[in-house]
Design a protein that fits this description.
The structure holds two protein chains of two kinds. Chain A is mainly alpha-helical. Chain A is built from ten helices and no strands. Helices cover 79% and strands 0% of the residues of chain A. By secondary structure, chain B is mainly alpha-helical. The chains are: A mainly alpha, B mainly alpha. Chain A: Keywords: Amino-acid transport, Cell membrane, Membrane, Transmembrane, Transmembrane helix, Transport.
Chain lengths: 236, 208
């Protein structure tokens, strides 16, 4: 422990903390983007035309099984060079797009599992009540499909929070970037990087506990409903 | 694309150590020794609570400064960081699967007068492992994606070479990165099929 210096720690702390706003802001922006874009994937996969379905499935698989870091580099460095559609994006926007698209494929799967979990009778009921497609989705299916997925969506928020420091590689000035530049300047990586690790731990651990609690609560709620249903079936 | 070998060796190294750490930590968390349980619990929470890229930098830059020891090379730093991180995630799967084996199995093994070790090795473990398989496959793909981070600590993997070509010829950037993405995808394809197969294996012959 000979090289640990509290003075450096105290000096680096406010500098690293400056990046916190950007890290949090980027996390929320990416998350919102992924939440919205996730719907896009879910509905694309529901198109009942085999070739489109097949293509969408493989595109999702492609995005999910390749590293987000490379995707980030692609959007930041390569996108401006692409003919016709290429535009130069600033680091922050590229990070939102890169990480947002990457995680939207996961979020899309979460939505899908939620929609698949809706009882078949509900679809039939919507049809027999002569609901329009829009009414069916907004009034019957989605209100039942989304709440059970909330714990899973929360988990993805924490996962994304931990992936956001990747954006420091393209120059978004989050906490990791601040720590690295401090380290490069004074040649002491130890303290600033430790601060970053501690900050992550402080924020992600309580939220993980919170999500856990939420999950248990949700499970209880939905189990109860199911138990009620089955007991009804038994007596009838 | 000479970087392919580096990416593959890092993947194999971190997969091996990752599974090793996962089993050790997962079993330790089920131990009756409270000290061991708390200690591994702490390890799991720390590595799950911080991000991999931070751990990687920390191992690479901070550990040599803190203790004055070198990890040997950046290969080891990368492998250990990925293995510790995913080992922590996977230890939860190990723990969950062992706990999910029906309690009657433990009781039956006790009734057959098996020792604790026999019980775990012959009865509980084989059943738990098959539950772990699909998740382990998924994490293998995750680890493949994570190997791209080692280029940040100066290892010459696929992405590193991609970056070099890009910086020498800027207009080639789209081709280069698409090529890199496809390389990763081709590496991931067998893993995707493996995962599907493992899912089939773990479902086979199991009621409900």
């Amino acid at each position: 422990m000979s090289n640990w210096s509290w003075e450096v720690f105290a000096e680096a702390f406010p500098i690293v903390l400056e990046g916190l706003g950007i890290t949090l802001g980027l996390t929320i922006a990416c998350y919102l983007f992924a939440l919205i874009f996730g719907f896009f994937w879910t509905f694309l996969r529901r198109i009942p035309f085999k070739p489109i379905n097949w293509i969408v499935t493989w595109v999702m698989e492609f995005i999910r099984s390749t590293p987000p870091l490379v995707q980030l580099f692609f959007i930041y460095y390569a996108w401006p060079m692409v003919p016709v559609v290429g535009v130069t994006l600033d680091p922050f926007t590229s990070a939102i797009l890169g990480l947002g698209i990457h995680f939207s494929t996961y979020i899309g799967e979460v939505y899908r599992s939620g929609i698949d979990g809706v009882d078949k009778g509900q679809w039939e009921a919507a049809k027999s009540l002569n609901f329009s497609t829009k009414q069916k989705w907004t009034k019957i299916i989605l209100p039942q499909a989304i709440p059970p997925t909330i714990p899973m969506l929360g988990n993805y928020l924490i996962i994304m929070f931990k992936e956001v420091p990747l954006a420091s590689t393209i120059g978004v000035a989050g906490i990791l970037h601040m720590a690295n530049s401090y380290g490069a300047q004074y040649w002491t990586y130890l303290e600033p990087l430790t601060i970053v690790a501690i900050l992550f731990l402080i924020m992600s651990y309580p939220s993980a506990i919170l999500i856990n609690k939420l999950e248990k609560k949700m499970n209880r709620r939905f189990d109860k409903k199911e138990a009620l249903n089955s007991s009804k079936g038994a007596t009838a | 694309m000479k970087g392919l070998t580096i990416t593959i060796t890092v993947l194999l190294g971190s997969a091996f150590f990752g599974y090793l750490f996962a089993f050790i930590a997962g079993l330790c968390r089920l131990s009756s020794n409270i000290f061991l349980r708390k200690f591994t619990g702490f390890y799991v929470e720390v590595f799950r609570g911080t991000s991999l890229i931070v751990q990687l930098f920390w191992l690479y830059y901070a550990i040599p400064m803190l203790f004055g020891i070198e990890l040997g090379s950046n290969w080891w730093a990368g492998v250990i960081a990925i293995a510790l991180n995913y080992g922590a995630y996977m230890s939860e799967i190990v723990r969950g699967s062992i706990l999910a084996v029906a309690k009657g199995q433990t009781e039956a093994a006790t009734a057959l007068n098996m020792s604790r070790f026999q019980r775990m090795r012959l009865v509980i473990f084989p059943q738990a492992v098959r539950m772990m398989l699909p998740e382990f496959g998924n994490y293998l793909i995750q680890m493949l994606k994570a190997t791209s981070l080692v280029s940040l600590i100066g290892m010459t993997d696929i992405l590193y070479y991609g970056d070099i070509i890009r910086s020498s010829n800027l207009s080639q950037a789209p081709t280069v990165y698409i090529l890199v993405l496809f390389f990763y995808f081709i590496l991931a394809l067998p893993l995707i099929f493996l995962t599907r197969k493992l899912e089939g294996i773990s479902k086979k012959g199991v009621a409900n």
